[in-house]
Known about the structure:
Order of helices and strands: HHH
Radius of gyration: 16 Å
Strand content: under 5%
Distance between the termini: 62 Å
Helix content: over 70%
Number of helices: 3
Largest sheet: none
Oligomer: single chain
Amino acid sequence: MFVNVSYTHPVILVTYLALTIWALVSIWRHGRADTGQKVIWTIVVVAAPYIGALVWAVLLAVGSRRRSTSGA
């Protein structure tokens, strides 16, 4: 009955949902961005599922690293 069972699809789906939800929550909690920027980032994350969320995460990490090193 379940001869061709692959656990790859559920893992990809759960990863996608977790990454997308994290990115959207992070975008809307971000205090330095105005509403227009948040809307644009939301569209990017939804339109380009993995790429948009990963780009947001990288830019968030770079920005936080810059703030922590420049304030010393």
